[in-house]
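Lecture 7, part B: from sequences to assemblies.

Below are the input chains for today's worked example.
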Amino acid sequence: MYDIASWALNIGALLGASYADVRIGDDRQRALSTKNGKLGSASDTESLGIGVRVIADGAWGFAASEDLNRAAVEATAAQAVQIAKASARLKQHDVYLAPEKPSTAEWTTPIVIDPFAVSVEQNLALLIEIDAELRSVRGVTLAETNMNFRREQQWFASSEGSKIHQTKYTSGVGYAAYAFAGSEIQKRSYPTSFGGQWQNKGYELVDELKLIENARRVGEEAVALLKADQCPEGVFDVILDGSQLALQIHESVGHPIELDRVLGMEANFAGTSFLTLDKLRSLRYGSELVNIVADAREEHGPGLGTFAFDEEGVAAQNTLIITNGLFTGYLSSRETAPMIQAARSGGTLRAEAWNRLPIIRMTNVSILPGKQPLTHEQLIAGTDSGVYLETNRSWSIDDKRYNFQFGTEIGWEIKRGKRTRMLKNPSYSGITTEFWNSMNAICSREEWVLWGIPHCGKGQPQQVMGTGHGAAPARFRGVKVGLAYRGNA
Amino acid sequence: MLIRDQNAELVERIRKYSVADEVEVIVYNTRNALTRFANNVIHQNLAEENVAVSVRTVFAGRTARATTNKIDDEGLKRVVEASERLARVQHADPDLLPMSDAGEGSRSARMIPGRHFARTAALTPELRAEMVGRIVAVAEKHRLTAAGIVSNSETAEGIFNSRGLSTWHTQTAAEISITMLGTDSSGWQKASSPDVDTLDAAALAETAARKAVEAARPREIPAGKYTVILEPAAVLDLVGFMFYDFGGLAILDRRSFLNDRVGTQLFGKNINIWDDVAHPLQSGSPFDGEGIGRQKLHLVDNGVVRRLVYARGTAARMQRSEVKDKVGPIEPTGHGFPLPNEVGEAPMNIVFGATNNPKTVDEMVASTERGILATRLWYIREVDPYEKIVTGMTRDGTFYVEGGTIRHGLRNFRFNESLIHLLSNVEAMGTPVRASGEESFDMVVPAMQVGDFNFTEVTKF
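Predicted structure of the full complex, as structure tokens:
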């Protein structure tokens, strides 16, 4: 594959590119799902191709093709140079890249069981068993299960001399039960929504999740929600379960810290950010308990944002994003790092596949667990009055990442340290920094889980990316609850 | 890009490699290019070419799909083997119909306007850069910053199967999206068409710029229920959240907001909605994921949901179901997704009916005593699946209207509104136009003036 890459690099140099990099990707995916005991989807996908990125005349060009014959690869590289020269017609200054030492490396996601070595019969048998357990609950009208695996091989080579071969594995599995009764539809998911839990792990993830053990409870809760009380509207102390906190982090921290967004590069689609450059190291983003990192290293865990090198050859790093509540870091790339006087890229340039231009994406943006021992039960017991919200159902935030609203599948009222009545249709909303400054408790390490959000959308053309978010249940003081149904009840 | 004859040869090779009872091949060729700009410079610029060959095989009611972009002999053999291996281990589906045949495909086929334009396919990076240059010139004239895209694409797709079905469609597409940013305001415009020559980059830029200038120094007004004037893209992005519920499988699964509501007066009497792939302002291929022609359907008739859409298999299942007498006509309508899938079918070529008395946006403004004009909506997500409450934000050009005049720009709002309530409170509509948004597929929709729209919070800009 490096020979193929060299054809592209050579043409780039010949045609005047001052920088070039090549990604050859070989991608395999398997997707299985069931619905009410029957096949939903069953597919196997392979994709192979080359993406060439160049700087010529001080501007960027990118071209991609599925054809790896020499003539096609050289034509693709030539096309990238032509595109770069067209870009140069509308530039204000030349692209400058923060220096990065070239690397030669091989890396593979550490896995125990190759998911593609597990038979489809075994996959389906488990999904059908889960489905049967869900539908054994009277009142469940729809049961959905899914299982997804991906193996992504990439060969990266640059005109600076890097040669990096990475193989990443991803596994995802989950299920949902729906109950429809006349005038409403309720839903419960496990381990969480968005198709379940996703990590860069092998098939061992499936064995770890206790899928069968939780199915009946999930079905029962879906049905019970039909008779539950509507979540009241008001201002409450709110406890979020770890999976909902993961999405809260994604939307109200992960996206606003993307430096390309801050610099206006995403203004037309995904938006900009309230985190203007003057706020770095001066904004009180959250309370003293809020410590958030962006950590792509293996030691952080098998998150969807774990790798050895990003897609311009920068080694995985840990960036401190919020430190004891103070805003301390962005997600950056070789092009954007100099704009915050950073000597080096933060290593967050990622692409959906070989045919997409890499852009700044979240890696594993995680909140660190509380330093003091605190279990989930203790957190509830230590709350006099409030609501506990679990599993995301809806999510929305404005285009600068200030005002958000989330809905969850289920909630419980908390009275004098005990969970009391079940609540349906819970929602909460707020302003990002006010919300994070109201965090007054977070559970400790034993409650921390590295959740996966598999389908984050960004870029034009839009790219889908998996991101990891470690979180433990946490409590927030004085949060607006229930506005989503005001005026619509 | 493979031309039709090359695709036919490829399909023949696949059929030779397969031992399945039935085999179906979907071929999708694509060539895309996109020039992206921000801060008045081109900062990303790309082109891509790819092919997808998707093979579905059937063994005695067991089916599965495998897809590849490796079209040499080895790649095609692998994709056939992968599909067959996956299909053999599925549970047999008693509802799986034999694949559609050539007769079914041709009987349902519809003529559509030509959607392939050579100049659009041939748009070069230099020509796209010129168009961006015109947009940036407008921005600089108004002392604004421009961000957006100019893109073009060419696709060729076909469905072939072992029962003689053979369909083919080629299309081009061009898109321009522009955000103009001021110090404390912004404006936006977007347009798409199969023919790049129908898109006027400078005109779109001027409109976006005007909005940004007029929305400067936005003021805050309290959240609450207001009359709202929604430009077509805002309407599109809202109503797009209901059309996946118009499929027969959504009803059978009991996950549709139309459960027990088909045939009822669900919306206002001024609401008529069709699905019509042949409409001159529409785009896309004329056949569905099984090669059946997309039929023109009157989905909503004077506010009554009359019709659902059906893939072949869903229609057969619905005819045997306990709700078959409550869902209107049941027949395959050519709206199915490639099998196997979880969703079934959905209308993808929405056309809103024109009203007898269309009003322009300016006329809607003039008739509004107190209200809000919204250019665009953003990050819309479903809050309640049965009342179809959706939430989202206004963005890029939100204005206060009082006494029939636009007074000033506004800080953006969050809304939580039921689509049932929305379409029951449309006080005036414009002439339907082709619109393009971000949350849903392109549609032919009008601007709308809606009473009592539920804005629940205000953000900080």
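Note for the exam: The two ends of chain A are 60 Å apart (CA to CA). Keep this in mind when comparing with the next example.
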